[in-house]
Amino acid sequence: MRNKTAAGLFALFLGWAGVHRFYLGQVGYGILYVFLTIVSLGIISTFLGVIDAIVFFSMNEDDFDAKFNTAQGMVPPIYNRRLQQKGYPPMAPPRRPGKTSAPPRTRRSSGRNVQNPYKVNGIKKYKEFDLEGAIEDFTKGLEINPRDISLHFNLACAYSLTEQVDKAYAHLDQAVALGFTDFNKIRTHDDLAYVRIQERFDAFQDNNFRLSTPAAPAAEENKDEQAPALDEPAMDDMLLAQLKRLSELRDRGLLSEQEFSIEKRKLTR
Question: Which of 234, 258, 260 has its CA nearest to residue 245?
Fold first, then answer.
């Protein structure tokens, strides 16, 4: 994981050579600094390096991580803090996403293994941290083989990394329904960290990693008789309960002040 102080020192003392940009993985900017050093005898690149140093030193750790670590596929520090608060082990050091979830061949035809092309492309994009592209390909892969367990698991990981938690839970549920039994992988896989820090994870785990059983069709047919519409006082009570729940999560350290404000605005729209 890249360090804010190290980046600032590189920019201050070696900024004329673009060392700090190479350190941050910005190879294009690093080459530009080298070019500016050649054409301006280091005057312009040195000046830019000092400016970059000031910017790095003035950033807080979370902003630096969000810009130069999370975006590069590193472990967001807030994940580890929340995991530790819930009693789970911290995530492992940074690695290439998806490395442990390389899927087996899925289909056979005339004695020869045939791979799902969307699955192959999705895994490649996943390893390159092109998560949106991976999600698109994995979804198309399920259109070819909707019972592919590894596709559902990989989609759950991709949705977890993009913090689309409902979809992540839905695909984990589907993978287990189709026969996935490596539950320890759900408890420890780095890419599922965002799923595990959710309040609902304990109930999900207690239910053998399945979502709640849907209501029977008969109940759906009679839902108007069984569940009359809430009047305004009841809706107000629900809103107060949700706000109280948010406050509890903030007090327990599971939500930052900024996250609390965002979720509160969503509820009170």
Answer: 260
Q: Which residues contact 206 (CB under 8 A, 6 or more apart)?
A: none
Residue 139 and residue 182 in one domain? yes
For residue 81, what are the β-bridge partners? none
What tokens were used for 71? 């975006």
- Identify whether 192 is part of a domain: yes
| Tokens encoding 156 | 């759950």
* Angle of helix 27-40 versus helix 43-58 axis, rounded to 10: 140
CB atoms within 10 A of CB 83: 17
For the chain, the 3-state helix, strand and coil shares in percent, each to the nearest 5, are: 70, 0, 30
The whole-model pTM stands at: 0.44
How far apart CA 254 and CA 260 sit, in angstroms, is 10
Is 218 within the bounds of a domain?
no
23 lies in the same domain as 121 = no
Judgement on whether residues 162 and 122 belong to the same structural domain of the protein:
yes
**Rounded to 5°, angle at Cα 260 from 254 and 263:** 115
Total residues belonging to the chain? 269
Residue 159 has pLDDT above 90, yes or no: yes
Range from 103-107, 179-183, 191-195, 229-233 carrying the lowest mean pLDDT: 103-107
Which DSSP letter does residue 69 get? Answer: I
Query: Which two tokens mark 110?
Result: 């005339």
**Domain interval for residue 176:** 77-206
Residue with tokens 């053998």: 208
Structure tokens at 128: 């390159």
115: DSSP letter: -
Section 241-263 average pLDDT? 76
| Domain annotation covers residue 149 | yes
- CA–CA separation, 34 vs 45, rounded Å? 8
Structure tokens at 151: 């596709």
